[in-house]
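Revision sheet: structure tokens.
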Amino acid sequence: MQLPSAGEPQVLTPAARRILEIRQKIARAAEKTGRDPLSIRLIASSRGLMVDPVLDAVNAGIRELCEEYLPEGITKRPPVDHRVPGITWHFVGELPPQKIHLAVEFFEWIHSVDRITTIRSLSEAVAAKGKKELKLLVEVNPLGKRKRMGASPEEVPFLIEAVQRIPGVRLMGLSMKNESAFSAKESVEAFRAMEKLRNEFLNKGVLPTQAIDLAMGSSRDFEEAISRGATIVRLGKAVFGTRAEQQWADEGWES
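Predicted:
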């Protein structure tokens, strides 16, 4: 078999081409606001997908994945980790009280904390599992469009305070889900509200200086989210292409 010479261009897989394009867009969006592109984390939203397309993305350089449904994450993680160790797994969905121990066992980050009772249960599960710590993002519902998509801005300071005083959990910042029903105008409004809230809480000392992460934006508007201070973008359709579009056509929130 003849090997390609050093001068021949490398042929990228479809997944690698998509991810390269995303990283280029992230870099341009960051540079427009004077930010370091390396300060923005790309997380691939693999909900609803089988292991093979997830491995395609991982082999193309993705090192962080997020799941919305616990059974999927629990099933998907072992074969992915076996093939490519060192992936960081994030959970972004609802946390049924009886399944919290599984979230702690299989994920390093939880993005969907919106109740003090959930924080306490996560802390107890961290202790029971002998885990060092669990990283948390407080989920915010900045526009109040859907009741089960995070805490109200008024509730957030109490959640921030709770995370800081409860052992075994570490506050990393704030999170927002993009609702699929959002218009482009509503998405921008939500990003602005989240940016204002994060900055206000930092300036007032409500958020500790190390908890600066802001997770928001979807495949259709992550560049706008970055312009409004996003440090984490969770993308599904942009990373996985048409398979993701078909899988998530009827979902309530976008990635």
